[in-house]
């Protein structure tokens, strides 16, 4: 380590002190939400809609009909799905192909992807993927131009700390967070969709329906 780097680190240590690991650190930010389920889901839906995502609500038994309705409206008929996405969720009459280590070009040939998720955060309108067998590998949700994500109502938490805690058992897995369709802007503030992921995102919130 260089002398300059050592000097900088020494100054940082003197500035922050050396608290005992046994002394708990007081967190000043909000640790847990206060909204009930109805308000939490309403906030999550509102955030997604602000990001130009399509948002739908249904019971689990209504998933096939809801998916069929959404895909018909989007003009989608052939989609790639993760290996363990439940077949009971899928409507008849459309082509759903389970990922079999497809190349990026093969994934790009599909009209979109359908996945589940690990958790979602109402306050930020974020969906969290840990790329399980129901969520698919990262390429599955980044390459296709369309993504339909199914979120259970009990997966939606209110705050970011709650979302992070929902991931504590998956520390070694890759994590992807989604907040609406992919979009970016250049220095002239020209907004371009689809640069880093799908241009179109639809979300079905299942369960928690009155």
Q: What does it look like?
A:
This protein is α/β, with parallel strands linked by helices and 210 residues long. The protein has one domain (37-206): 3-Layer(aba) Sandwich (Rossmann fold). It is built from six helices and twelve strands. A hairpin with a 5-residue loop joins strand 10 and strand 11 (191-193). The longest helix has 14 residues, at 3-16. The chain starts with a helix and ends with a strand.
3D shape: globular
Which fold name fills CATH's third level, the topology? Rossmann fold
- pLDDT under 50 segments (min length 5)? none
Helices and strands: which structural class? Answer: alpha/beta
Which value, in Å, is the CA radius of gyration?
21 Å
What is the arithmetic mean of pLDDT?
87
- Separation of termini? 61 Å
Looking across the biggest beta sheet, what order are the strands in? Answer: 1-12-7-4
CATH superfamily: NagB/RpiA/CoA transferase-like
Provide a concise account of the structure shown.
The chain has helices spanning 3-16, 37-50, 63-74, 104-108, 138-142, 160-165, and strands at residues 54-58, 78-81, 95-98, 113-115, 119-121, 126-129, 146-152, 156-157, 176-178, 183-185, 191-193, 200-206. It has 210 residues and is of the alpha/beta class. The strands form four sheets. The protein has a four-stranded parallel beta sheet with strand order 1-12-7-4, with helices on both faces. A four-stranded mixed beta sheet has the order 8-5-6-9. It has a two-stranded parallel sheet with strand order 2-3.
């Amino acid at each position: 380590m260089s002398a300059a780097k050592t000097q900088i680190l020494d100054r940082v240590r003197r500035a922050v002190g050396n608290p005992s690991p046994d002394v708990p650190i007081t967190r000043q930010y909000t640790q847990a939400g206060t909204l009930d389920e109805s308000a939490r889901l309403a906030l999550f839906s509102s955030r997604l809609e602000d990001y130009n995502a399509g948002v739908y609500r249904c019971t689990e038994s209504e998933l096939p009909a809801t998916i069929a309705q959404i895909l018909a409206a989007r003009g989608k008929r052939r989609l790639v799905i993760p290996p363990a996405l439940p077949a009971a969720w899928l409507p008849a009459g459309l082509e759903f192909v389970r990922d079999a280590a497809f190349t990026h070009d093969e994934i790009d040939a599909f009209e979109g992807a359908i996945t589940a998720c690990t958790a979602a955060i109402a306050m930020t309108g974020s969906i969290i993927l840990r790329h399980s067998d129901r969520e698919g590998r990262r390429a599955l949700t980044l390459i296709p131009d369309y993504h339909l994500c199914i979120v259970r109502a009990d997966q939606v938490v209110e705050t970011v700390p709650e979302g992070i805690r929902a991931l504590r058992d998956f520390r070694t897995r890759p994590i992807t967070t989604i907040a609406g369709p992919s979009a970016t802007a250049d220095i002239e503030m020209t907004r371009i969709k689809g640069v880093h992921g799908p241009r179109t995102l639809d979300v079905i919130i299942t369960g928690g329906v009155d």
